[in-house]
Each structure stands twice: as structure tokens, then as C-alpha cells.
Amino acid sequence: MSPQAVMGAAQPPAAQGEGPPGANLFIYHLPPHFGDSDLYSHFAPYGQLVSAKVFIDKATGQSKCFGFVSYSMPAAAEMAIQQMNGFQVAGKRLRVQHKRSRAQPY
Questions:
Q1: Where is this region: Disordered (predicted)?
Q2: Are 79 and 32 in contact (CB under 8 A)?
Q3: Fewest C-beta atoms under 10 Å: which of 1, 32, 77, 101?
Q4: Going residue by residue through the chain (106 aa), what tens digit of pLDDT does each one get?
């Protein structure tokens, strides 16, 4: 039996944070109805998540259709990119890439 089956449904970690360099991902083209728990459940199979956050427009309360996930290990982030980049959810094709630090040029 999997740990998730023992503990119940996968739930996002309470604290939001970042993993080590190379373990933080930017996900866009999320379906508008996606919340933190949806993002978490889609990315949890690839490794231990530190955080999963969908960004919400404060003025409207609507999803901005992008978010971030952070893993505890860079290898998990690499696997998530390989498996989830281009994955189709609710008619949207996800785009998954490494999160850029503020110091990195675009």
C-alpha cells in the first residue's frame, strides 16, 4: 500500500517555500479551475514536494493560470519536466520549465 493510501489523499505542504537550486519549477497554461491541491496532486508522483502554488489575481480572485512547484531534490524536478511538459489537462497543454532566479537574465 502506498504512503498516500495510508495517509489519505495527497495534500499540499502547509508551508510554502523553495527547494534547492534546480529543484524549482514554473508551470504555465494551467486550467483556470486548478488550485494548489490540483497542482500538488499532478506533480507529487515525481518526488517529495516542498510547495505547490497556483497564483491568483488578488483583484478578481481568479487563477492567473500559472504556478510554481518546488521539490526537495533537483532530480525530481528533472523527472517532472520530462513527464509533465506538454501534458494535457482539461484541454490545456502544460508548459513546465525551471524557475528562473531574479539574477538570471531572460
A1: 1-21
A2: no
A3: 1
A4: 333 333 334 444 444 689 999 999 999 999 999 999 999 999 999 999 999 999 999 999 999 999 999 999 999 999 999 999 999 999 999 999 999 876 555 4
Structural domains counted in the chain: 1
**Inside any domain, residue 39:** yes
Amino acid letter for position 77: A
Could you tell me the three cell numbers for 62?
A: 481568479
- For residue 46, give the nearest of 17, 87, 6 by alpha carbon: 87
What CATH code is carried by the domain that includes residue 72? 3.30.70.330
Q: For residue 92, what are the CA distances in angstroms to 2, 8, 29?
A: 29, 28, 6
